Prior knowledge:
The complex is a heterodimer of chains A (295) and B (759).
Chain A lengths: L1 H17 L6 E2 L9 E8 L3 E8 L1 E2 L15 H7 L5 E6 L2 E7 L6 E4 L9 E8 L4 E8 L6 E10 L2 E9 L6 E9 L20 E10 L7 E9 L6 E9 L1 H13 L2 H6 L9 E2 L1 E4 L6 E6 L4
Parallel strand pairs in A: 2-17
Antiparallel strand pairs in A: 2-3, 3-7, 5-6, 5-8, 6-7, 8-9, 9-16, 10-11, 11-14, 12-13, 12-15, 15-18
Chain B lengths: L19 E10 L10 E4 L5 E3 L5 E7 L2 E7 L6 E6 L4 E2 L2 E3 L18 H6 L5 E4 L16 H5 L5 E3 L7 E3 L7 E5 L2 E2 L4 E2 L4 E2 L6 E7 L13 E7 L8 E6 L3 E11 L3 E10 L1 H7 L6 E15 L2 E16 L4 H4 L4 E18 L4 E20 L2 E21 L4 E22 L14 E15 L4 E14 L2 E15 L4 E12 L1 E4 L10 E4 L7 E14 L4 E18 L15 E17 L4 E16 L8 E2 L6 E10 L4 E10 L3 E2 L2 E8 L6 E7 L5 E2 L3 E11 L7 E9 L11 E4 L5 E5 L6 E9 L1
Amino acid sequence: xxxxxxxxxxxxxxxxxxxxxPAPLDIDIQPNPPGLVVASQIIPSTAMAVLLTRSFSALxxxxxxxxxxxxxxGFLEKLIVKGAFVTVSYVGVTDTLFPVDTIPGLYVSVxxxxxxxxxxxxxxxxxxxxxxxxxxxxxxxxxxxxxxxPTAKSDTSVSLKLRFYDPPGHNWYLMNVYRAKTxxxxxxxxxxxxPFTVGKNQLLKSQLITDYVYNTALIEITAIIKGILPTDTxxxxxxxxxxxxxxxxxxxxxxxxxxxxxFHEPVNIPTNVKNGYGYxxxxxxxxxxxxxxxx
Amino acid sequence: xxxxxxxxxxxxVGYCSAQKHTISxxxxxxxxxxxxxxxxxxxxxxxxxxxxxxxxxxxxTLSGDSAMLLYSFSGFETMVLPLRLIKDTVLSVFISPxxxxxxxxxxxxxxRNEAEKATAATTSEIKIDPKNLTSIPSFxxxxxxxxxxxxxxxxxxxxxxxxxxxxxxxTIDQNLILLDDAPVYxxxxxxxxxxxxxxxALKDVKLIKGGFDAEYGxxxxxxxxxxxxxxxxxNHQVEGSLGMLSTRLTVQGPIxxxxxxYMFGARRSYIDQLSKWLGFPVPYYFYDLNxxxxxxxxxxxxxYLSAYxxxxxxxxxxxxxxxxxxxxxxxxxxxxxxxxxxxxxEHNSKLFANYSLFHxxxxxxxxxxxxxxSILVRxxxxxxxxxADYSYYHSSAHLFKFGFTxxxxxxxxxxxxxxxxxxxxxxxxxxxxxxxxxxxxxxxDQYKVNAKLMxxxxxxxxxxxxxxxxxxxxxxxxxxxxxxxxxxxWKSSYSRMRQYMHLVSSSTVSLPTDLWxxxxxxxxxxxxxxxASGFELALPKIRSKVTVEGYFKEMRNLIExxxxxxxxxxxxFEKELLVGTGQAYGMEILFQRxxxxxxxxxxxxxxxxxxxxxxxxxxxxxxxxxDRRHDLSIVLNYNATKNWQFSAVWVYMTGxxxxxxxxxxxxxxxxxxxxxxxxxxxxxxxxxxxxxxRLDLCATWSSALGKKLHFDFVFGVYNVYNRASxxxxxxxxxxxxxxxxxxxxxxxxxxxxxxxxxx
Lengths: 295, 759
């Protein structure tokens, strides 16, 4: 009898709480109209590359392959901007960036001179959507490594000690450490060979550095690199970047994954692209390839 | 007017004065012999008046050789007492409850004689009687004083169903909730759906949202001063309730008649027991324990010892694996406790003192274990404090209050212990405790300038010592009341408040496990300046009152997290904080009808609340998350017969604000080794959710008054027309397959019943 009363009580509670769940209310939030997105890369003494894509609404259907989390191929196709007119202007010169057939959406100029402290203006026009964007950036001089020295910490980690001279004024840097994914050896590192070739190198560490916390001209940084073997060959790139680029990359790091977007505070990612998104940068990296066998 | 049915008093001879004599003493409830807070005591001829303090004490200094004292309090017989003034006199009186059943809903001012209330220089103050809440419709029939306060002007709700209060543009951590002088740091059970207060064990609930007296401090936006029952000094008494989700029982009575009494209350939810019986355990429950001892040592000294202990417990252990899958263990404890020792001492007929020693603690443990990994996260805040409050009844014109308080806070935020592979991602940490000493000195004068004008001015000097840093600041307070006409009063106030701790909480997810954290050498004390002004019109013919009040509040040193800040288990969140300012302003209207067949109130708030932080929203000012433009509550109570009473609550509120993600784009990461999907948000809090409106109804059948056993049955329906009250925004697939933004509601129509009794 007692159990029946309990059952009745429990059912009443469940019914009370669940039987009449109200229909959700619609909300009038205007989806964001698609805009042009700019990403760029400098290949030292070789080329300037710009990738043009489109943003998409948060209400976009079929964005990812179900169950994999990967971007659906058809969807990716829709985002790539083909047939755009892209130019870069500096010191009175305007260079046209030409599309790369093998990588849709990528525009490259091999004529563009890389002049430190020079301001570069990017203009892109997409005749399909009749949209245009413009962005300006300054190419900062490359800051070279004064020295770089790895020390084995354990079988799977290395302490990388690097030193460089910090130019006067406030400066911001980006350091990346890679390992060749396939074969060991400097020749197999794809750093800078082809821009935006995602997945050819294994990223070991990416670090943004600001000189605010240092008060000497010669800055020494120790980075612990994990997941590495003593026989590996690694590549280290080091770029002197603008403050705007630094803030953009910081914001990107903060919100670049779905976990972050749920548990982090919302980020309005800065941009230097007028009427668009992304960031137009022109940093000239110093590159070092290190064969750990030799240390 | 009815005259007293019983008078009991005793006289202690003091010293004689040629011209003026002081009448002092306590006012008690005849049934229980407990002191009554807020009784109006007035001398009819001279117009001198005051109200009894938090311990039922009063002191009036009168001239002449005779006096006519009038004691009045809503729900009680008015007592008129003629006196010959020969010498200073101690006069304690016992007043009796009205025989006639009064209105069930008793709120602001109902505890005071209206004329007296209007002349008191208090603004922005609301009182409710916790004993009469069961007839107000509530979720699942759980009577809750904090939910009733949410129906008042200037008090806005947070998420649907929760008891968080956003008062005049402030946040929930800007409310000081006191239970017998001890702060309660987490006032909610079950993610805030129920408050920790068992209304059977409560005596008085007072909300102050502006015009703060100098004795209160430590928070910017409000003080909720809750007093527990003292315990019946005359008879043993049992009262309780059986509800759908919990049951409660309170017993009280004399240990030694008229000398020592006790009160003990307990409440427990029982979903876990029911579900266990039925074979699908829901291993969650909460409980509360309240206790109090009240010892009248002698005519001038009284000692109170009170305590509260409450806990929320979830424990999914290995035995429940069948129901809960591979999780081999998960649970939490949210533990709240307070203990207060108070000594009342009437040093002489004009000087009343209260000395308090209290301890309060809030802590939580969250633990989980799975696949050989385990994690325990623990945070604690604990206070020890001493406090002394003096009231000096100098004359009928001046009531001086002064005192001090010193609190030793101990914070242990984010103790983490991990084992197994999870240690790669989450490191164990045993942070050093943070100590903070907070102190305050205050003085104020309630000055009755003449029959029309009353002033209350004072100051509070507060400070904190933390991490070798010392903060100190002066908090001036001022309020005034002026009788423009017989029943029309103008009131204004100014208060500066300082706050030395805050709740570290995400703007996206708010949890009971949010951290309390002190000011540091980086995070400065919060400061607010609030101006309030308004009119009060008493309408005695229809036993009603209208209050219209406007306010402007400016807040400084508010904190918010930087964009992209990671808060979860972050042991260095100070680096992620930004400091900014806030403004809140608005207008509040309250119409109340206190008695009659129809009673209730209408409360409307028109308000704005903004924030400005360098580093957020492009440094531009933005609306706060709970900036709700319109907030309307209508509470109606209809006494149909001697036994039946019907009540309705209708609320309307502009939706809360939020920052939705409206777009995305792909971007190679900094190392060009992968592509990130980056979000595009609107500007901060740019979108308003749909408005909330909801109708709740209830019918109460009560047994006849005057019998030894009194009981009532309450039948109610929450959210009668099943309207969703948005609490989040989600992207969902519509029926035609396209994606849409939707706002689901948490609860639809919920019928409920409860049984309450008193013996």
